[in-house]
Amino acid sequence: MADAPDMMQVNNVSKAFGEDWEREMVIENLSLKIRRNQLTAIVGPSGCGKSTVVNLLAGFEKPDSGQILLDGRPVTGPSKDTLVVFQETALMPWLTTYQNVTFGPKLRGDIPRDQLKEAADSIIETVGLKEFRDKYPLQLSGGMQRRAELARALINQPLVMIMDEPFRGLDAMTRQLMQEFYMRLCEQEARTNVFVTSELEEAIILADSLVVLSNRPATVREVVQIDLPRPRNLEMLSSSQAYEYKRHAMEMLHEEALKSFKGVGSSSDFLESYSRRP
Ligand SMILES: Nc1ncnc2c1ncn2[C@@H]1O[C@H](COP(=O)(O)OP(=O)(O)OP(=O)(O)O)[C@@H](O)[C@H]1O
Ligand SMILES: [Mg+2]
């Protein structure tokens, strides 16, 4: 159904890993709606199963039970409609920015040559890498590499952009710049995004809706609508409204972290990762 109200629906999905007695439930009865042209941010305790959710949405893994629908149709495997940008760089070091961006479409042959050049140059300009079009990944800064990866995903015009901690590992200043850049990009071009992050403020400032996952086995603890006005800027994080979102989400995450503390994980690691900013 092209006019389905939600771009993706996750209905009662469960997923376990391992054999027999070692079998461990990672996702349990998780239901979630990914709204069209909105950014859905997902946060949750460290190791709770966020990347597993990403792998299920992208079709890399299959649910043991339940169903995932993309635009009304079941997800049966990976496709260019649901592209993932990971935290690790996936750029090929022997290819230039332009060659990296055009690699996928060339391989598949799904964009005619003349259109491909035009589309690639336009996307490279959008991500601010026009001057670095013919440079190799090692000649780019960390932030530029992330933008090149974004361009590589965007050229395929995926129905859903799925990002798994895409800015993790960047220094604080570059990370802020990337957040501002991505905020603008989302506001300028309608796109459906799923954005997994372990930084609560990053989630709040980017998100239209914030999904808080429980401790493992992960299920949805709460979905918080983030009604900060648009266009947004990072200063809005100091507003009382943003503070209230943060306080509420921290409270839930703290409770979930304490549960994992009773198990094997460490809540102090987790709390540290969510409260890096003052
Ligand atoms: N392919 C797999 N085979 C076996 N176990 C797996 C597999 N993928 C994930 N797991 C297990 O599922 C659990 C959740 O892992 P996952 O990577 O989804 O968590 P996460 O929330 O993304 O963690 P992090 O905060 O470190 O990014 C872990 O215990 C992990 O060992
Ligand atoms: Mg992960």
Gist of the model:
The chain is α/β, with parallel strands linked by helices and 278 residues long.
Lay out the secondary structure.
Elements: E1 6-17, E2 24-35, E3 39-43, H1 50-57, E4 65-70, E5 73-74, E6 82-85, H2 97-108, H3 113-126, H4 142-154, E7 160-164, H5 172-188, E8 192-196, H6 200-206, E9 209-213, E10 220-225, H7 240-262, H8 267-274
The structure holds adenosine-5'-triphosphate (ATP) and magnesium ion (MG).
Write up this protein:
The protein has 278 residues and is an alpha/beta fold. The chain has a domain at 6-81 and 158-274: Rossmann fold (3-Layer(aba) Sandwich). The protein has helices at residues 50-57, 97-108, 113-126, 142-154, 172-188, 200-206, 240-262, 267-274; strands at 6-17, 24-35, 39-43, 65-70, 73-74, 82-85, 160-164, 192-196, 209-213, 220-225. Strand 9 and strand 10 form a beta hairpin. The N and C termini lie far apart (45 Å). The mean pLDDT is 91. Bound molecules: adenosine-5'-triphosphate and magnesium ion. Adenosine-5'-triphosphate binds at residues 17, 26, 44, 46-52, 198. Magnesium ion (MG) binds at residues 50-51, 164.
